[in-house]
């Protein structure tokens, strides 16, 4: 892949040889960004169609994130997401910014979150009030709690912000709109007057990103800086919007809402792979303790170690196959909606469905990845704590993903809402993507009648058990959540409170269980497209990921009456151990197959030749 | 407490105002150590008796660790543990080192772990071969895999190592012994010849500690540097050991093995408290989303948020009450064994029992604390990722505890072994501490006959349900583990392998379930010593921690036939939610009660006055 050669050929991208403080890391990342932008990777980008361009940028993002998450984020915020948003929300008059940002003349940031409000975007308080006398918007921050903050690139380096503020015109507020707001002189990087802007200081990771805050003190920008695709101020100084083409608005919303989360899922695939590659390779060559004959065993031979790591190897495969296919479907949806191939109803159904699936999948995947990284770190023992093991940096740089682009806990509620709404949708719609994923909800009554009567391992280590049990679980959780809501309705009028008190053990679990079942469905389909030899191993990974995920829900399987026999728990747990043991010979070669190019793991603890390459050996002279 | 005023009065202890790299952090910690040692805190230390001195040093360690974990670890490795080990393993001839280290003339490190072996200490390969002709030991490192590594203080600053090496004399190896080995000239800190010594480089946390590696190239030290309490080389050059006083050896072993883990448990109490104090205070004042009347709610009002955090508040209390009482019992045991108040059998029973309880408790507590920190970080949303929230540093500095002083996974096996051995111990011994903790194993048969038939919340929110269910669970897991071992015996001769393949869902879970039940037992006893008003709240925390912990084992409760009714899972989960909701008004005041002094949390996100004090507000001018 061309991006690797860029990183390999320019020493600016090499990991620093001496310890750096966070200020130095920020400067380094800024320099890297310039070389990255002018590396030639993006030369043909403006001639590509939407699909081609998106896939190309996604691939580059994945590769870059794997190598240097600071750089990929800096690039996304400063260039690719900004230029994307311009095309989505702006019109022809904004095209110069598009070319300037790709030409390295300006650098952007996306200013949405405020100090007091992140998830609840409706409460954002920054205003952009139209002054017809000067044809300007006056941007103002009403108080410290409305300071834009956490904005990546804003701390020290951006020249322009894509600002989201409440548009006020003729005394009325028309909701959040996007504006292009100059922040710093592109030549000197000195901030303009009437702004209070700076860096928020040190964080737990992503030290190369200059996250910043800003307060606007009646700061004026030209009227034309409003991104006016969905609404504008006319020559009379009145706000106007045309709803004649709503699917385009919806499509735009889908694009800007979901794209970031899809990217996070793609990045997570690589993060989980990196983590398990490091820990499994280490386990294959690290020996500790000996059997009764005095022969030292590689720690991968230990049951506990297999059980700790192999389910994450399985998860890495399951997630990867889901994300690849789903990303593709997602892009097709955007293209279809942009091309006007869907009617309003279809677009609306598609947008809400894709959003719901992205919400629960992003949550499940980032949490799984978080846990895989920590388990890998611990499975490498003390050595896992060394910087050269890369697991500490991986953890700290990965960590924000569980709360950014939507806090996972908040996102899960969106999926729950969608699933409950879908129970009353027109039957015909179930043949329409992505409602195809929950077609089985139609047969809920029949599914809830299922009972487990197995008594042998092959009754659980099979596709039908896993898929049917998950169908039962999702249907039961839909029913149980609805019942909980009904009970709450007799005690409480406030819909908001009712929803909040039907989350734990109910709506929240429903969203996660649905995400698991959906990923498993995609993974199974993928297994069946592979040749027999590969499918044989992949299916074992499918069973392992399926049983391991189901084991977390056993309480509900008993609680809902899916089984009252001890054999359910016994067989699932036994199945997990048997699969781990059977997979042992495969896993080492599997992790090599999913490993990113060698040089990325150069400094990782384990290496593909099975020998330890402790980077810090070089200190020993 | 006097230690706070030391930290407050000397600016060297203030958190650095500008970003530092890891080299700078190491230098700062070294300077802090000097001021700490000469702060006057340790002036009377040599006149204290063992009990008084140990409690005093433990208290100082706890406070220091809370404030600055780098300093507490540097002090422990460099001074307190070293001087302790000298008294334990050395004799009068080593006293000068004792006074030198307390006098700041020398600084030590504890060199045990080698590159290829940590947990398996029997395989350590560094040798100390006695040369009778010169009355010296020749220390040698046979290969890179035997390089001592990860040794704190060794990287740059220590002058002496307390080295553990295989003592070879007259051609025979007599096992690991402790030696005092000069490493650097105390005046210049230049290493002596025939040593390859250096810093292992950057880590994921504890950046203030200079962890190092060392290889010895036939490096000679005087014979008298052998710590000779348990064995020595006589004037004829022969190795001698006297086993006439074995309980003293055992007592010494107990002291040196368990003391570090007890300290980790004490430190964990503070770490979990810090984490939940930060996240609960934040939740009490952070508002997000509004009810149907448009009133914004503090996020602590949300069911999901309560369920995420309150069990960790309960765990903080449960763990604290266990660790306080158990530490005291532990010190009493050491004193009794040192004073010769126990016979050999009693000492041996006590040593192995205390070791087993420490092993599983250290594992459970550090994992619980790890999870509490991460949940707290996520519960603070994006702001939890800021350095000022302290949760990132807390996570990275706490993290090594799950693998150091015994990898948790390895430690759990020790507890399992002990529990299985105890099933065949003489009945009389059950009245002897710490076997009192598992007295109920005697009634295993009767306990395993218990069944759950409850159908109301009060049947699970009560002491008898929690304690009796845990007794059942521990007894069942003992039985199930033995059965698994018996089955494996029919397939496999190797005892080592049999043990390894009876861990997951069995021995490992047994050790953790026992640790939980034991902590709950201590916590309940503590609740009953408090006045009614306090006990009322503490008991709710007991129920919450109990039910929340039991919920994780529901699969086994069904699998073992403790219940086949859906109400078990239903009532436990409902009980958790009811307790969370009931505890809400209390929790905010509770976290203030466990909060460390205010200035420690100065830069934390939430503050006791209920207002946000984002430290980085100072940037906004």
From TrEMBL, chains A, B:
Binding site for FAD: 113, 152
Keywords associated with the record: FAD, Fatty acid metabolism, Flavoprotein, Lipid metabolism, Oxidoreductase, Peroxisome
Catalytic residues (positions): 405 (proton acceptor)
Oxidoreductase among keywords: yes
One Pfam family in the UniProt entry: ACOX
Locations listed in the record: Peroxisome
Residue stretches making up the Acyl-CoA oxidase/dehydrogenase middle domain: 109-218
GO molecular function, one term: oxidoreductase activity
GO-annotated biological processes: fatty acid metabolic process
Reported cofactor(s): FAD
GO cellular component terms, A-Z: peroxisome
Domain Acyl-CoA oxidase C-alpha1: 256-420
Domain named Acyl-CoA oxidase C-terminal: residues: 466-612
Family in the record: Belongs to the acyl-CoA oxidase family.
Protein name per the record: Acyl-coenzyme A oxidase
Protein's organism: Ranatra chinensis
């Amino acid at each position: 892949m061309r991006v690797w050669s860029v990183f390999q050929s320019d020493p600016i991208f090499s990991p620093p040889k001496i310890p750096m403080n966070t200020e130095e890391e920020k400067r380094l990342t800024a320099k890297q960004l310039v070389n990255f932008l002018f590396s030639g990777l993006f030369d043909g980008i403006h001639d590509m169609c939407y699909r081609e361009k998106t896939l190309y940028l996604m691939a580059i993002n994945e590769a870059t994130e794997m190598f240097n998450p600071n750089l990929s984020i800096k690039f996304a915020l400063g260039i690719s997401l900004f230029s994307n948003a311009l095309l989505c929300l702006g019109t022809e008059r904004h095209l110069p910014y598009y070319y300037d940002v790709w030409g390295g003349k300006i650098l952007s940031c996306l200013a949405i979150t405020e100090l007091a409000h992140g998830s609840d975007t409706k409460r954002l308080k920054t205003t952009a009030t139209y002054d017809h006398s000067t044809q300007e918007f006056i941007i103002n921050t009403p108080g410290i709690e409305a300071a834009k903050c956490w904005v990546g690139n804003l701390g020290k380096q951006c020249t322009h912000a894509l600002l989201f503020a409440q548009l006020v015109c003729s005394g009325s507020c028309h909701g959040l709109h996007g504006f292009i707001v100059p922040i710093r002189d592109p030549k000197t990087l000195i901030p303009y007057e009437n702004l209070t802007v700076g860096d928020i200081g040190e964080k737990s990771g992503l030290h190369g990103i200059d996250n910043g805050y800003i307060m606007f003190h009646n700061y004026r920008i030209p009227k034309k800086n409003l991104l006016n695709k969905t609404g504008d101020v006319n020559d009379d100084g009145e706000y106007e919007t045309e709803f004649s083409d709503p699917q385009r608005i919806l499509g735009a919303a889908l694009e800007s809402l979901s794209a970031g989360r899809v990217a996070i899922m793609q990045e997570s695939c690589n993060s989980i792979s990196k983590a398990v590659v490091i820990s499994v390779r280490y386990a294959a060559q690290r020996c500790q303790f000996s059997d009764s004959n005095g022969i030292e065993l590689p720690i991968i031979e230990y049951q506990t170690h297999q059980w700790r790591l192999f389910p994450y190897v399985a998860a890495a495969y399951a997630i990867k196959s889901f994300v690849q296919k789903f990303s593709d479907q997602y892009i097709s949806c955007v293209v279809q909606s942009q091309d006007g191939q869907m009617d309003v109803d279809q677009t609306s159904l598609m947008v809400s469905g894709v959003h719901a699936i992205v919400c629960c999948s992003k949550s499940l995947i980032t949490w799984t990845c978080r846990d895989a990284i920590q388990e890998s770190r611990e499975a490498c023992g003390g050595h896992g704590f060394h910087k050269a093991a890369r697991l500490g940096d991986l953890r700290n740089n990965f960590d924000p993903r569980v709360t950014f682009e939507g806090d996972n806990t908040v996102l899960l509620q969106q999926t729950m809402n969608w699933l409950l709404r879908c129970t009353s949708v027109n039957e015909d719609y179930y043949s329409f993507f992505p409602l195809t994923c929950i077609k089985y909800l139609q047969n809920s009554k029949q599914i809830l009648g299922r009972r487990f009567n197995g008594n042998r391992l092959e009754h659980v280590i099979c596709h039908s058990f896993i898929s049917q049990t998950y169908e039962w679980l999702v249907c039961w959780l839909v029913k149980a959540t609805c019942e909980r809501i009904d009970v709450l309705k007799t005690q409480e009028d406030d819909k908001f409170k009712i929803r909040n008190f039907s989350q734990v053990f109910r709506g929240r679990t429903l969203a996660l269980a649905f995400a698991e079942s959906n990923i498993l469905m995609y993974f199974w389909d993928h297994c069946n497209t592979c040749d027999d030899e590969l499918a044989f191993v992949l299916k074992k990974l499918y069973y392992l990921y399926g049983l391991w995920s189901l084991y977390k829900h056993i309480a509900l399987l008993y609680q809902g009456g899916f089984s009252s026999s001890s054999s359910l728990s016994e067989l699932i747990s036994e199945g997990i151990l048997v699969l781990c043991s059977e997979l042992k010979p495969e896993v080492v070669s599997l992790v090599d197959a999913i490993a990113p190019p060698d040089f990325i793991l150069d400094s990782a603890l384990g290496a593909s030749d099975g020998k330890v390459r402790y980077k810090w050996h070089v200190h020993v002279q």
